[in-house]
Design goal:
This protein is mostly helical. It has 22 helices and no strands. Helix 2 (31-49) runs antiparallel to helix 16, helix 7 (129-143) runs antiparallel to helix 11 (223-249) and helix 9 (181-198) runs antiparallel to helix 20. The mean pLDDT is 84. Pfam families: Na_sulph_symp (PF00939). Belongs to the SLC13A/DASS transporter (TC 2.A.47) family. DIT1 subfamily. It is a multi-pass membrane protein. This is DASS family sodium-coupled anion symporter.
Length: 485
């Protein structure tokens, strides 16, 4: 039975490709575009089911398109043009930025700076359970702008620290989980979803989404513009989430000095800040300054990241073998490189233009205002995340499609819509136990049972969406949009 289920995970994506392609080509769409779309949807289903690693699914899809000589144009191209297109994503600056971001996260881990920051905040704020929740949130907030992988930041740095706290006060997954464990685990995940939307460089799919928006519609938002756009919802949700989790999860332990004592002991074991930590701290500030002011200094974000990686190696914070042996970074490199190429093909073959015209025709008859239509599109994009086991897969499958649906609809500004869709990528991760990279890590602690997780996910997910629509939509439309370029 198990073997049969595993076999179906392999066969369903292939069945999706063949099943779609044998259907009649929709009127107004070329046979080549329909073939490409069939392959693309097979890729999306393969990434959702993951019978093999998602990065391999993306590479196989590129190989299929290159062999069939589809993707770069509305017509079949030469073999040389096909392979040039197939490899183009791996030379993309955003793909390299994501790859190097993993090295920055590795620098925090190797130097010990990330662990020290988290422990220091727990020691400072951990005298009460609520204070401990805010300490966890602040630790994530401090690290978020510098570590674009929330899996590395939240699952790799914060989770090992936070998971050590509940046992200190007798809270275990199978014994008094609600004493403090459930609250801290949920707060750790819920706040990393907020910070992942707060900063452009806090979530790897943010960078993929921006590149997809640029490739499909020429839309690009600055680091500062992104931060300002999410600011009203970001501040509100960040301050509210630990408190709301405190009320919903209802920890029975209201205060304890054990966490502070433990954090102090761990800090004492670490000793005073070492040279590598000081170097990493200085390099982080240097990197952030260039990311924020790079546009005025004529320094591209990927150039800044590449410079930072080289300096980390030269200063001895990480070793070159750490770079070339980082399996997670190379896995993301192949995944994002493939996805950026494949997403660009939807436009090249004319599929996005077809969907755009179709959606515009349908939406025009609804008679909704531009703002209402934007909210409907955002809500649909956000809630559809229930169907995806990864934010990356969600971006690849739906972002450009939803942008095309809104393009040209009266009253809808495409740049506003694109930005609003992208800003939801972090906060939507709270919906399910598989919604974002670190979800499985926090869920795997077993402090939160499955039924509880789905209930909390729905509650916090709807809160995130409601506050985002009520605060960020008018903020971007009427106040801050002139700063977003």
């Amino acid at each position: 039975m198990v073997k049969l289920l595993v076999a179906w995970r392999y066969l369903l994506p292939l069945g999706m490709v063949l099943g779609l392609y044998i259907l009649p080509t929709p009127a107004g769409l070329s046979d080549l575009a329909w073939l490409y779309f069939s392959v693309f949807m097979g890729m999306v289903l393969g990434m959702i089911l993951e019978p093999i690693p998602a990065s391999l699914v993306a590479v196989i899809s590129i190989v299929v398109c290159v062999v069939l000589r589809i993707g770069p144009s509305t017509q079949h191209v030469s073999a040389g043009a096909a392979i040039t297109w197939g490899l183009s994503g791996f030379a993309n600056k955003t793909v390299w930025l994501v790859f190097i971001a993993f090295m920055l996260g590795l620098g925090y881990e190797k130097s010990g700076l990330g662990r020290r920051i988290a422990l220091w905040l727990i020691r400072l704020l951990g005298k009460t359970t609520l204070g401990l929740g805010y300490a966890v949130a602040l630790a994530d907030l401090v690290l978020a702008p510098f570590i674009p992988s929330n899996s590395a930041r939240s699952g790799g740095i914060l989770y090992p620290i936070v998971s050590n706290i509940p046992p200190l006060v007798g809270s275990f997954p199978d014994k008094e989980p609600h004493k403090i464990g459930t609250y801290l685990i949920w707060t750790g995940l819920a706040t990393t979803c907020i910070t992942s939307s707060m900063f452009f460089t806090a979530l790897a799919p943010n960078l993929l989404a921006m590149e997809s928006a640029f490739k499909s519609h020429g839309i690009e938002i600055s680091w500062v513009g992104w931060f300002l756009a999410f600011l009203p919802a970001g501040i509100t949700l960040f301050l509210l989430t630990p408190y709301l989790a405190y009320k919903v999860c209802k920890p029975t332990l209201k205060g304890s000095k054990d966490a502070c004592i433990w954090a102090k002991q761990e800090l004492n074991k670490m000793g005073t800040m070492g040279q590598k930590e000081y170097l990493m701290l200085g390099l982080s500030v240097f990197t952030l300054i260039l990311w924020i002011g790079g546009k005025h200094l004529n320094i591209q974000a990927t150039t800044t990241a590449l410079l930072s990686m080289v300096l980390m190696v030269l200063f001895g914070i990480i070793k070159w073998k750490d770079v070339v042996s980082n399996h997670a970074a190379f896995n993301i490199f192949f995944l994002f490189g493939g996805l950026i190429t494949l997403a660009s093909g939807l436009k090249s073959v004319g599929f996005l233009e077809y969907i755009g015209h179709l959606a515009q025709s349908s939406m025009t008859h609804l008679g909704l205002s531009g703002t209402t239509m934007v909210c409907v599109l955002i809500a649909g994009f956000y809630l559809s995340h229930y169907l995806f086991a990864s934010v990356t897969a969600h971006v690849s499958a739906l972002l450009v499609l939803f942008m095309s649906m809104g393009a040209g609809v009266m009253g809808v500004e495409l740049k506003e819509l694109a930005l609003l869709l992208m800003l939801t990528l972090g906060i939507m991760g709270i919906l399910t136990p598989y919604g974002t990279g670190p979800s499985l890590v926090w869920y795997g602690s077993n402090y939160i049972k499955s039924a509880e997780f789905w209930k909390y996910g729905l509650l916090f997910g709807l809160l995130n969406l409601s506050l985002f629509l009520s605060l960020c939509v008018p903020w971007i439309k009427f106040i801050a949009f002139r700063w977003l370029g």
